[in-house]
Amino acid sequence: xSLILLIEQxxxxxxxxxxxxxxxxxxxxxxxxxxxxxxxxGSLYMVxxxxxxxxxxxxxSFALALxxxxxxxxxxxxxxxxxxxxxxxxxxxxxQVLATFALILIFSEGTRYIFGSFPLxxxxxxxxSGPVLLPGGILYPLYRLVIIAxxxxxxxxxFVLIAKTRIGIQIRAGEADREMIxxxxxxxxxxxxxxxxxxAALAGLAGALVGAIQSVQVGMGEPVLILAFVVxxxxxxxxxxxxxxxxxxxxxxxxxxxxxxxxxxxxxxEPSSANTIGSAVASMAIYILxxxxxxxxxxxxxxxx
Amino acid sequence: xxxxxxxxxxxxxxxxxTAGVAMVLDEPFIITLMTKAAILALAGVGLxxxxxLGGLVSFGHAAFFGIGGYAMGVLASHAQSYTPIMETPILxxxxxxxxxxxxxxxxxxxxxxxxxxxxSLRTTGxxxxxxxxxxxxxxxxxxxxxxxxxxxxxLSIYIRNDFPGLNTLDPIQFFAIAFTVLAAVLFxxxxxxxxxxxxxxxAARQNPERxxxxxVAPFRLRLVAFIxxGAVTGLAGALFADLNRxxxxxxxxxxxSGEIMIFVILGGVGRLFxxxxxxxxxxxxxxxxxxxxxFWHVYLGLLLLLVVLFARGGLIGTLAGxxxxxx
Lengths: 305, 327
Fold this sequence. Notes:
CATH architecture of chain A: Orthogonal Bundle
Largest sheet of chain B: 2 strands, antiparallel
Helix content of chain A: over 70%
Radius of gyration of chain A: 20 Å
Strand content of chain B: under 5%
CATH topology of chain A: ABC transporter involved in vitamin B12 uptake, BtuC
Low-confidence stretches of chain B: none
Shape of chain A: globular
CATH topology of chain B: ABC transporter involved in vitamin B12 uptake, BtuC
Number of domains of chain A: 1
Strand order of the largest sheet of chain B: 1-2
Oligomer: heterodimer
CATH class of chain B: Mainly Alpha
Order of helices and strands of chain A: HHHHEEHHHHHHH
Number of helices of chain B: 13
Number of helices of chain A: 11
Structural class of chain B: mainly alpha
Radius of gyration of chain B: 20 Å
CATH class of chain A: Mainly Alpha
Distance between the termini of chain B: 18 Å
Strand content of chain A: under 5%
Number of domains of chain B: 1
Largest interface: A-B, 43 and 41 residues
Distance between the termini of chain A: 41 Å
């Protein structure tokens, strides 16, 4: 495999990882602050993608589509938090898994009812389409570079938000001791709604950004949701830093595994079976990575023990 | 008399009675639905051993369900095409015998549960949920990308496997097989819950420190429970594959894990007949709501949400009132 191809795959892996980070950041915040497993996070991703596709089809503007995705996902998140999720904070994980599984069914079928079963398409805006020439003569799609940039900006913004702002201090305090900050006069239920809506908005943003390179369809959220869970489990639940590193690890493992393993296996096997076994192992690679991490660090790389 | 045993008896009798009436009315479809309910209930009974008794929230039981299904698919497809599974070092041939297939399914699922359990039980809480999910997904993607047994398309078996003395293609006879297996497993699971092993397992769920203090290792109890649980779900998978005469990677999917969990919760966690009630209700809803609307999953979701939020003992818990049976 040539170096240029390898660099392209690394960039693809980073782009995938950054997108996973947008999902995982919300999940890990929600788990860290509220102690809630939210399986319906993938549905919020789908809501963002559908809102973006609908508004883009309507107005033709990608910027408006992104705003719509953020707003729709945040609104759906806040609504779900107020109606359902806040009844689940004191329940065990089993109840949370089931109730949010039920929410997936409702969101997926509801979306199918409104938009039909056929996928929608969201076009990359003209200004961001086409390849750019990177140093070293590599042609790479501009839009994917933009996704990487947006993701890294969001990551930086989140770090600032959590580390420097008043809300961030309240969020960290809520993770540490929720009774205490409620006693100190912080409206904890409003804070919870806010954190949930923030996580939802990030998922919606990811959905809209990815919607332009994949088709927008019902059920698009679940595969990403599972990967986002893998990310936060690898990174350690509740840690934003862990989510970022976990997301990049998973993105790179998945992309490079698919590209490199068949070639690697071919060095000591016949080509046909190397291809089969290589791609089979590659499709399992991130789960093997996760199992491996948990074996040595049962609460993830950056998790509190 | 306590209400729960009575409910259990009525619920249990409902299966053969419905199937019998359907046979008299010549409605083979209803019999097949009851067979499906009995098999899914069996999968739920398996999960309930880990979840209800052991408190192990496994989100990856589709792994065992799928292994059972593929045990059937692989053995029967080799028998169907008259090609041996392997020739060296020993000759292993496929088979159409249901009993052999069940044996292979149970052993394979138990071995997988041993492996997954040894690794997963090192973690607790949400990490356990996620690592079991990850193992399920691992097998799912493996089944999709491994071309030898159909890959993404799955495997079709043209004729149902043989059971000595019965015609398995006759719906009522196949129902009888599935229902008998369910009854036998329920009997064993009921005995297990009251045996020293089950009591120790329950104790380990309620207070692991105390159990450890009296010299019982929770890890070993949980591992054994996880293996038994996986083996039962694997058996259900083999029967399910035989019912459909088809296996596909969908059996390994995380939605399958979620559905098996739904049977347990709808019926009532930790109650012996909970999964039976849950699976029966699920099939009933699928049939009734599915007939009313193409979007019946919305109603299923709403119902499930209401059960989780407001009816915490599940169907049996709600019907039986406040008393709890297995705690």
